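As the work plan foresaw, the team has encoded backbone shapes as discrete tokens. One protein thus recorded appears below exactly as we store it.

:::
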Amino acid sequence: MIVLHKSALLILDNEKKEFLVTRRNDHITQWLLPGGKIEEGETVEDALVREIDEELGCSVLKKSLEFIGEYEAPAAGRPGQIVNIRLFQGQFSGTPEPKSEIKQLGWLSKTDAANEEVSEIIRMKVIPDLVKRGILK
């Protein structure tokens, strides 16, 4: 089975009740976490800094990154593939805007754990873990 290794950034609102998600402009229609594939020779953190710049037009302060957790589930829009996401929180500068392959930004809350428009990894793994740990209220 193919495993896609990705890094992602958790961007919470001020009340810690919602987090930022993206929609791509390709065949993958579900909401995804901002971030992306770790390229050959890249560290997880370097991939995250690059991907957030490409997707959202924001700069991430690499030294501020805090590891939240590692999650694995079937990959959205890729039958027979698994996605492994390493999720971080950290400081960034700039206002997130859709760039590159991103067509839309949105916000999700803990109530979206049953929303079929949300990728399985977010619904089944990320939201329950963040709520359990008090990171998402």
